[in-house]
Design goal:
Elements lengths: L7 H7 L2 H17 L4 E5 L2 E6 L2 E8 L4 E5 L2 H6 L1 H4 L3 E2 L3 E4 L7 H13 L6
Antiparallel strand pairs: 1-2, 2-3, 3-4, 4-6, 5-6
Helix pairs in contact: 2-5
């Protein structure tokens, strides 16, 4: 979903009710894990920047919630954990908000925070 929201809080009011809790939890995990990152609306979705570069983002798409982990090293080093999930090079897609593995997401966010690599 492309959003014209100016803030993440505003974005969360626009998404379908069945996805609000999952997206709010994603936001909270990002805010508590990505210390020092700027929370913003880049690419018309909630994004988290370090050194003016987006490293993490999420969005409510038509058929899924998508989490973008843009540090390639983090995604590639966790291939065994994301195996079986609907994912691409830098994203994980969840069609059912109730089946999101927030422990896995916390791990990916923590590794992103620790990483010295640049986003792809």
């Amino acid at each position: 979903m492309e959003s014209d929201a100016k803030t993440v809080s505003e974005f969360l009011t626009e998404i379908p009710e069945k996805r609000k809790q999952a997206c709010t939890t994603l936001r909270n995990l990002c805010r508590e894990t990505l210390i020092g990152y700027e929370e913003c609306m880049d690419y018309k979705m909630p994004s988290y920047k370090r050194n003016n570069a987006v490293e993490v983002a999420f969005n409510s798409q038509k058929n899924h919630i998508c989490l973008y982990i843009l540090i390639h090293d983090v995604m590639s080093s966790n291939q065994n954990l994301i195996k079986g999930l609907n994912h691409g090079k830098g994203c994980i897609r969840y069609s059912n908000p109730d089946k999101i593995d927030f422990a896995l997401i916390k791990k990916l966010l923590t590794e992103t925070y620790i990483s010295k690599s640049k986003p792809c």
